[in-house]
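Quick one, tokens below:
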């Protein structure tokens, strides 16, 4: 056992470093594809695109996450009280899907509406990963971000946005610390994990052994996670690059070409999933569905979703293949919130934050909803 611990102390940080190298290589490959396709059509090369896009500052540098502050413009901040919002992204993907490009940034849109954003930027777990627990994230890192946001605003309760698994973590926090969350926005958030769609089938105990994987790897490698997501639509990864070269509509439209590069680069920019959390994530949520059944515990206490009392906006993507709509809708009947609304939008899981339709029609409505409740 001691030899295994020493090996993991050496190999897991190295694995995280190799993940960063792989993400850099992937971004370079995407740029190469788009530049070659544009060159053939006589179009000028695109400038290099890296994320995130909007200016921000690091206000907390903790062991599990950095807290990034996206301040509202000075002209907005001077006219109204500070309205703090903590943003919780998934542990699986980088937060900057919400800040892809200057012209396609959810975070920039929200801050221009006067919201003071405190965004959790999760760190790679390294050799801590196999021992990390849900409690370390919900009652640790998220609680620290809430404390920082509340201190900056001089208040005790804040707004919160949770996306994908980050929404699940945000819901857990709101249930355990109801007095600290004034308004809660969830996006593509699984609550009833047996209703998530294809993912609920491929993670069944008889076909998927998360315990064995974590015994071998320590943390869940992002390459394995992304392979699993890509297998949900196995030909899409091939066809999108064929379309890029054969169909000139993306390549010749600079705005669409920039969006393609930014999104494809983000898709392969991931960190390992901490092994200790991953074991419970698969076993207790996907396989045993304990959260919706009122059996999931943190710190020895049941996470009772009925204790969520914050104003709730539950945003559901109707074409979501990661979190099918019924998995999110399940929350509505479980919370105690009197001010609650399910907002269903015709897009996919990633389209909630990256489609132009969402930026034009969905996010101004979300921003207005938050403004009215903070």
């Amino acid at each position: 056992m001691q030899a295994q611990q020493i090996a993991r102390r050496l190999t897991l940080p190295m694995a995280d470093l190799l993940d960063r190298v792989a993400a850099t290589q992937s971004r370079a490959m995407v740029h190469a594809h788009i530049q070659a396709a544009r060159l053939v059509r006589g179009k000028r090369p695109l400038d290099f695109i890296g994320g995130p896009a909007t200016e921000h500052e690091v206000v907390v540098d903790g062991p599990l996450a950095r807290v990034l502050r996206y301040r509202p413009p000075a002209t907005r901040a001077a006219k109204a009280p500070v309205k703090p919002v903590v943003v919780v992204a998934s542990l699986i993907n980088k937060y900057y899907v919400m800040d892809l490009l200057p012209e396609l940034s959810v975070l920039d849109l929200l801050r221009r509406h006067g919201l003071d954003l405190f965004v959790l930027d999760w760190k790679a777990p390294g050799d801590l990963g196999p021992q990390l627990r849900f409690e370390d994230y919900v009652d640790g890192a998220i609680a620290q971000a809430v404390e920082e946001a509340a201190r900056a605003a001089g208040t005790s309760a804040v707004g919160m946005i949770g996306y994908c698994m980050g929404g699940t973590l945000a819901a857990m926090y709101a249930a355990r610390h109801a007095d600290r969350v004034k308004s809660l926005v969830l996006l593509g958030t699984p609550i009833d994990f047996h209703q998530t769609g294809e993912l609920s089938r491929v993670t069944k105990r008889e076909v998927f052994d998360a315990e064995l994987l974590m015994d071998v790897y320590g943390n869940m490698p992002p390459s394995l996670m992304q392979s699993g997501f890509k297998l949900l639509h196995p030909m899409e990864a091939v066809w999108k690059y064929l379309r890029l070269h054969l169909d000139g509509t993306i390549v010749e439209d600079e705005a669409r070409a920039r969006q393609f590069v930014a999104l494809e680069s983000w898709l392969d920019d991931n960190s390992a999933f901490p092994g200790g959390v991953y074991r419970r994530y698969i076993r207790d949520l996907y396989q045993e569905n304990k959260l919706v059944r009122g059996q999931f515990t943190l710190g020895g206490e049941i996470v009772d979703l009925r204790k969520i009392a914050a104003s709730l906006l539950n945003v559901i993507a109707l074409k979501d293949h990661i979190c099918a709509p019924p998995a999110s809708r399940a929350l509505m009947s479980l919370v105690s919130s009197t001010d609650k609304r399910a907002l269903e939008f015709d897009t996919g899981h990633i389209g909630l934050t990256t489609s132009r339709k969402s930026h034009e029609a969905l996010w101004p409505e979300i921003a207005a909803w938050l403004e009215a409740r903070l």
